């Protein structure tokens, strides 16, 4: 496994992401879930001591023309800025990075391990767990503004 140029084929096949290194930093280890218009993965930050775990969300979009891609890019950046501000809250996993690679879009957030016996309460130590967060939409505003730019692709 190694670095790859991400493209639409990868977005439609979330299993192809396993083992890949994104942004020359985040190694994808396991798929956590697929929802709405994103795939979520457990990854490790290869540039930090001990390579701590993190969560990578991959936005799935169908923007094929430059105009739609520009809109998706703008909305994605807005979402990253919003998540950056929300991450300052004690109950929300912190945003570590957001980036574009090969016209694909990724968010990287702090990994908070869920406790197996806590299926009803989505919070762990006062913060929302990854198992709960993988069900949350990534770019809700983008989907409402331009539904044709996103895919509801499933496995």
Write up this protein.
By secondary structure, the protein is of the alpha+beta class. It has 4 helices and 8 strands. Strand 3 (38-45) and strand 4 form a beta hairpin. It is globular and about 40 Å long.
Write a brief caption for the model:
This protein has helices spanning 8-12, 66-86, 130-133, 140-145, and strands at residues 21-22, 26-35, 38-45, 53-59, 95-101, 104-110, 123-124, 127-128.
Characteristic key phrases:
8 strands; 4 helices; alpha+beta; disordered C terminus; two-stranded antiparallel sheet; disordered N terminus; 6-stranded antiparallel β-sheet; globular; 155 residues
Task: Note the topology.
Layout: H1 8-12, E1 21-22, E2 26-35, E3 38-45, E4 53-59, H2 66-86, E5 95-101, E6 104-110, E7 123-124, E8 127-128, H3 130-133, H4 140-145
Antiparallel strand pairs: 1-2, 2-3, 3-4, 4-6, 5-6, 7-8
Principal-axes shape call: globular
- Regarding quaternary structure, how should these chains be classified? single chain
State which percent range the strand residues make up: 25-35%
Structural class: alpha+beta
Kindly report the spatial arrangement of strands forming the biggest sheet: 1-2-3-4-6-5
Helical residues, percent: 10-25%
Q: What Rg, in angstroms, do the CA atoms define?
A: 15 Å
Order of helices and strands: HEEEEHEEEEHH
Largest sheet: 6 strands, antiparallel
What is the number of helical segments per DSSP (H or I, 4+ residues)? 4
Distance between the termini: 21 Å
Mean pLDDT: 75
Number of strands: 8
Low-confidence stretches: 1-12, 134-155
């Amino acid at each position: 496994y190694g670095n790859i140029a991400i493209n639409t084929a990868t977005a439609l096949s979330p299993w192809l992401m396993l083992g890949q290194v994104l942004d020359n930093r985040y190694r994808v280890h396991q798929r956590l879930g697929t929802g709405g218009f994103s795939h979520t993965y457990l990854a490790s930050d290869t540039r930090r001591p001990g390579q701590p775990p993190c969560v990578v969300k991959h936005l799935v979009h169908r923007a094929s023309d430059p105009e739609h891609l520009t809109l998706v890019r703008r909305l994605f950046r807005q979402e990253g800025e919003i998540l950056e501000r929300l991450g300052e809250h004690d109950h929300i996993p912190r945003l570590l990075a957001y980036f574009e690679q090969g016209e694909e879009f990724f968010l990287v957030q702090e990994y908070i391990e869920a406790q197996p016996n806590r299926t009803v309460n989505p919070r762990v130590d006062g913060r929302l767990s990854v198992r709960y967060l993988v069900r949350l939409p990534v770019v809700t505003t983008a989907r409402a503004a331009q539904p044709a730019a996103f895919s509801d692709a499933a496995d």
